[in-house]
Amino acid sequence: MRPISDARSTKPSPMQPIISISNLSKTYANGFEALKNVSLDVRKGEIFALLGPNGAGKTTLINIVCGLVNPGTGSVTVGGHDIVADYRKTRSMIGLVPQELSMDAFETVVATVSFSRGLFGKPADSAHVEKVLKSLSLWDKRKDKVMTLSGGMKRRVLIAKALAHEPDILFLDEPTAGVDVELRRDMWAMVRSLRDTGVTIILTTHYIEEAQEMADRVGIISKGEIILVENKDVLMRKLGKKQLRIELREPMATLPASLSSHGLDLAEGGDALVSTYDASADRTGINGLFQDLAREGIAIRDVETRQSTLEEIFVGLLEERA
Questions:
Q1: Other beta carbons within 10 Å of 124
Q2: Are both 102 and 221 inside the same structural domain?
Q3: How far apart, in whole angstroms, are the C-alpha atoms of residue 61 and residue 26?
Q4: Same domain for 202 and 259?
Q5: Separation of alpha carbons 175 and 172, rounded Å
Q6: What is the pTM of this model?
Q7: Which residues constitute the domain of residue 297?
Q8: DSSP string, 185-205
Q9: Where a domain ends, among 184, 219, 237?
């Protein structure tokens, strides 16, 4: 599904960021400094995951880009247009799915989505509305009132509302909060299909596995500052650790001295050896470890490896800055 009108003529080139944020700061009236000199470029057609704890500044950043909160200092452009000077243009390029399930409970699904399209000055287009509803498995419920829907289906209606005016960019602020696993995976598939048609997706989530599953790049924000932006796969290679667990045929009470150089831990009960190593290093020492085990006559029952998750990397980065 590619919800873009042929009438648009000012689009960023594939090499140009579709969103460019430069030295953006925001301090609220109560003195709370929500953002501190944030600079960030989001590329056209990517899925960008913005991760951070509660109060880190994720929602403030999104609301500023979407025109819902006034920026403090710094600048933000969307498709080359300044969000303040060209408010109408930039807002028309953006669809926002907020955390809160705020809709007219007594309106039907199809009327709710059609009304959102009209808010942006778009002419009625029943074919486009039908396409959006079908892509989100909402067509059979188009005549149902919003109040009768489950929480997961209401969240799908929010996404349909955000897509009604054919935006170039879709912000998803905690889109699967309160959604069951099956619906969450359906939404992941829907987000990928949107990206495949050229829509740029910016995702905030508390579900780290969501970012690990879907994102092309990951940004981490803490206490109003962007502390890291990296390609997801590169981040996993750079900061991810692998854990090697060697199950032993016979438990041992202590580690032999000949194995002390390998940084091994003896598992509780003595029935396994555990080694944590940098998988991206030129020399991991794993071959030497197995050679030393053979020399000691230590029989192995099984071997398994485990890669650090994005969540563990995320927690580690925040602990470093605490």
A1: 9
A2: yes
A3: 9
A4: no
A5: 5
A6: 0.76
A7: 240-321
A8: HHHHHHHHHHHHTT-EEEEE-
A9: 237
